[in-house]
Amino acid sequence: MGYKHLSSEERYYIETRLKMGDSLNTIASSLQRNQSTLSREMKRNTGLRGYRHKQAQAFAQKRLEDKPKQRKITGATVDYICYGLKENWSPEQIAGRAGKDGLFKMHHQTIYNFIRKDKRLGGLLYRYLPRKLKPYRKKYGSSGGSCKGIPGRIGIEDRPTIVDTRARIGDWEADTIIGKGHQGAIATIDERKSKLRLAMPVQKKTTENVVGALISLLLPLKKHVKTITFDNGREFASHQNLSKKIKCDNYFAKPYSSWERGQNENANGLLRRYFPKTMSLKNVKNQEVIEAVDRLNSRPRKCLNYQTAYEAFEAETKISRKQLLGYALKI
């Protein structure tokens, strides 16, 4: 049961019993109130001439009137929220980045409430949210498959422990997303510390195509590649070719343990907003993937203190967004 404010009748009763010499504990028991409620009442609403119920009621009413009201969202704030949503930022990212840039301070739940109200009034802002305000449903099972048929496979249990700390640049996670009816795929790879994502479409999910795409993506950044962690898909069977080209160490997550590459799995889910499971990926152009990945890398991230992945990666490597996009366009 929620807290209820003392009524004027209760305050009159308190004043009467105090004049009779009763203790706060006794009065609280009679009113079926916690003693701390009455102690707080005495501290807040006692005047110079002692506790008087009319004065106490006036003090409480004034305090209620002076309490800050729910903040109204101004036009400029609405514009910023709409801009963030159209950039596929979450309400938490919008609020965090606005605070970081000194634009305004607002709790992300306030933005969710604004979106819900807009939806009730027939607005469409909710469509920019990943789940469109639908309740979360826990997923069971996972991808990953058997670890058979991968030459030179080294398990994640042998991976250096420093990778788990995300204390350095250069540790990556890789996977693919598949088109409808297994038509086409996109090879994806994510840097663990900066959250930078790279991706490239392939016509068929063969190991030559997928590993070749990863080599093309990472070759300009090979100085900043120390380890790569894969799932157990057969498309990574020729991972040793990548290791030789990039000079990195490769590791594989345990079968059916997609959470061991949680960053890549989450980023793949975000990329699905642009390339849904109902869509064939056979004819997807590299430019389309570059544009989608650019939007993901431009999102402010809470775990990066609301920097973008581009900003975090540049701070560590001195490689700018412009340079990264240039590398991608040359592939």
How does this model look, in words?
The protein is α/β, with parallel strands linked by helices and 331 residues long. It folds into 3 domains: 59 residues; 54 residues; 175 residues, Nucleotidyltransferase, domain 5 (2-Layer Sandwich), CATH 3.30.420. 44% of the residues lie in helices and 10% in strands. The strands form 2 sheets. It has a 5-stranded mixed sheet, sandwiched between helices. The protein has a two-stranded antiparallel sheet with strand order 6-7. β2 and β3 form a beta hairpin. α2 crosses α3 and α6 packs across α7. The longest helix has 14 residues. About 2% of the residues have low confidence. This is IS30 family transposase. InterPro entries: Homeodomain-like_sf (IPR009057), Integrase_cat-core (IPR001584), IS30-like_HTH (IPR025246), RNaseH-like_sf (IPR012337), RNaseH_sf (IPR036397), Transposase-Integrase (IPR051917), Transposase_IS30-like (IPR053392). One of its GO terms (molecular function) is nucleic acid binding. It holds the Pfam family HTH_38. Keywords: DNA recombination.
